[in-house]
Design a protein that fits this description.
CATH class of the largest domain: Alpha Beta
Number of strands: 13
CATH architecture of the largest domain: 3-Layer(aba) Sandwich
Radius of gyration: 20 Å
Structural class: alpha/beta
Distance between the termini: 51 Å
Largest sheet: 9 strands, mixed
Strand content: 5-15%
Helix content: 25-40%
């Protein structure tokens, strides 16, 4: 079995038309992955998904008046299992304190970790593949809103997320101003930049140029576009870290095994191989395209007009060395959002990935944001 087939073997079981029976399946065990099947999900482009499934995980207990709920919006290659990709953030006494709060994280629509996406089974019993519709940040937020409605949560105490997750947290505050008391946007922006779109477009081209892409319909093939996905990940990972880190850690040093490879190339190979084992190439394309089209001001009179609608207390976090989402983008959000607190800047040598690594500092900011709205 190829790595692509191995990674995808369970995806269809939780997608539309898969093994989830009825509208609802819940284990009631903290941290267990659960599934909610919707009747339908209208998309921003006019398409409609029939009976999509949303995977989610939760921790802590929802109180009687459902006022202690926190929504975590995961990043591009993250998923509903927050402790797996954002360590030391969720648990008793941690920033997202499970003794005090009910924390929930849905996997995005279009994803490949239980929510309906390109690798899921369509109503005709075949995987969606190239037929999966384009999804936007607003579509993802609508799906998350459906999850909240299922729980009877009318208002989240906090919606927080980094990168793609920050885009969704911001979209929550603009689309549903009364549904969030506060948001925390980490290393993100109100609109995609030309530089981001340019870099992401090259990643998408790398995947689509793989001879095993087959126009997106590779699920029954012997091998999928794992090489293209690996190249995309290598490009992306360089934007997640910093030039200084790459030079200090690796410089021009070669491997000591006589292979002739540079150490930095070996490091990027490792990052690519990890993603190839657990992620779907079509999902990578769809979520990247959603980030490329991100614009809270679309159809709302521009970014400034959209951000002026926000009622939720807004905490914005920048990482000083982030070259993918440079601090000027977070500064823009603060300047245009009337409810924004002063910009929080994290000093880190790790660039965009600082939100994953500087968890003590991120935790401090989350705690402070929660104390203000408790």
């Amino acid at each position: 079995m190829s790595p692509q087939q191995e990674a995808l073997k369970d995806f269809g079981k939780q997608g539309a038309g898969g093994e989830v029976t009825g509208a609802w399946l819940e284990s009631h065990e903290p941290g267990e992955r659960n599934f909610l099947r919707l009747e339908t999900l209208p998309l921003e482009n006019g398409a409609r998904l029939s009976e999509p499934t949303i995977a989610y995980q939760s921790w802590g207990r929802l109180n009687a008046d459902k006022s202690n709920a926190i929504l975590i919006n995961h990043a591009l290659t993250g998923w509903s299992d927050v402790p797996a990709w954002w360590p030391k953030m969720v648990g008793p006494g941690l920033a997202f304190d499970t003794d005090r709060f009910f924390i929930i994280c849905p996997n995005v629509i279009g994803g490949c970790q239980g929510s309906t996406g390109p690798s899921s089974l369509a109503p005709d019993g075949r995987r969606f593949g190239s037929r999966f519709p384009t999804v936007s940040i607003r579509d993802m937020v609508l799906a998350e809103k459906k999850v909240a409605e299922h729980f009877g949560i009318e208002r989240f105490l906090l919606a927080a997320g980094p990168s793609l997750g920050g885009m969704r947290a911001l979209e929550w505050a603009v689309t549903y101003p009364d549904a969030v008391a506060a948001i925390c946007v980490i290393g993100s922006s109100a609109i995609a930049t030309g530089d981001q779109i340019g870099t992401a477009s090259i990643q998408i081209r790398a995947i689509k140029s793989d001879p095993n892409f087959y126009g997106g319909d590779y699920y029954e093939a012997e091998k999928g576009p794992v090489e293209g996905l690996g190249i995309a990940r290598r490009i992306a990972h360089l934007t997640y870290r910093t030039e200084l880190e790459m030079d200090l850690r690796f410089g021009a040093l070669g491997q000591e095994d006589g292979s002739g490879r540079f150490q930095v190339a070996s490091y990027l190979d490792h990052q690519a191989e990890k993603l190839q084992r657990r992620f779907d190439a079509n999902t990578y394309i769809h979520l990247t395209e959603a980030m490329n089209t991100h614009d809270v001001g679309r159809g709302r009179g521009g970014v400034g007009a959209a951000l002026s609608r926000i009622k939720a207390e807004t905490t914005v976090v920048a990482i000083d060395t982030d070259r993918l989402f440079p601090p000027r983008l977070q500064k823009e959000i603060v300047e245009l959002t009337p409810t924004a607190k002063p910009l929080e800047v994290i000093s880190s040598p790790f660039g965009h990935d600082g939100f994953l690594i500087e968890v003590e500092r991120v935790g401090e900011i989350i705690r402070k944001a929660l104390e203000r709205v408790r």
